[in-house]
Design a protein that fits this description.
With 259 residues, the protein is an alpha/beta fold. 50% of the residues lie in helices and 7% in strands. The protein is globular.
């Protein structure tokens, strides 16, 4: 990262850590709701150690690391909230993502060094869909917390993206934003507030920011790669070369979700 990019990234980390600590004040309310939602959908017992999760993997990124991507997942799951982890996309979906970039060196991306991984909300649930029950049974305060967290993450992610672009000295130092997992961005999905706020915030930051936003299916269960293969087969993707195809796919889904 350039000196300016590093300055912006460090400022973001400090603000993000502080915000998660603020939201953790709702722990006593959230954990019983998170436990019940998991039990009700048949998830085997697991200890809930962090009701709201800051991605500690951000602390492992060094100034010498070039940031190629900002990847946005859904929310922290069972593995991500454990005290020994407290990191995003460290379960099976994260391993699939790591493997994908390792097998495709043309991206020049180390998923743990060249990627800033964030979520649409840092509020934990065993399954993303459990957030609906947590919101429904948690009352106004919990609903407000989850909505506020989505708005904050969308605004600050767009701001970070814009600052990293502004702080770049060369074109290749400007990151892309990959929004993965779009099922709950549609219709009355859980993350519609995030969706709308992200677009509004990115456009306020400038067209250069919005043009670097791409939308994909999630890495879990190989949905990302299956979708890519299917779109090549059905003729949706008309360009050659993997990177070009990925960009065209991301633009296709961006129009699908945001327009």
């Amino acid at each position: 990262m350039t000196d300016l990019q590093w300055k912006f990234f460090e400022a973001f980390k400090i603000e993000f850590r502080a915000k998660v600590q603020e939201w953790m004040s709702m722990t006593d309310v959230l954990i019983p709701l998170q436990k019940k939602a998991a039990e009700d959908c048949g998830v085997p017992f697991y200890p809930i150690e962090n009701s709201v999760v800051y991605n500690t993997d951000l602390e492992k990124i060094k100034k010498e690391d070039d940031i190629r991507l900002i990847v946005i997942g859904d929310n922290p799951g069972k593995s991500e909230q454990l005290k020994e982890k407290q990191a995003y996309l460290v379960g099976q979906a994260g391993k699939i993502a790591e493997g994908y970039f390792r097998r495709n060196p043309e991206f020049d991306v180390d998923f743990r060094k060249n990627v800033i991984i964030l979520n649409k909300t840092p509020v934990h649930s065993a399954k993303t869909a459990n957030l609906k029950q947590i919101i429904k049974e948690g009352g106004e305060k919990v609903a407000a917390l989850i909505e506020e967290s989505q708005i904050w993450m969308a605004q600050k992610t767009a701001e970070l993206m814009a600052n990293l672009i502004y702080g770049a000295e060369f074109e290749e130092q400007k990151p892309e934003l990959w929004l993965v997992g779009y099922a709950e961005l549609k219709g009355k999905g859980i993350f519609v507030k995030y969706r709308d706020c992200l677009k509004e915030s990115c456009l306020k930051c400038g067209k250069d920011v919005w043009d670097r936003v791409y939308v994909f299916q999630h890495f879990s269960m190989n949905c990302f790669t299956k979708d890519l293969a299917n779109r090549i087969e059905d003729g949706t993707l008309t360009v050659k070369g993997l990177k070009n195809q990925i960009h065209q796919l991301g633009e296709f889904h961006r129009k699908e979700i945001f327009e």
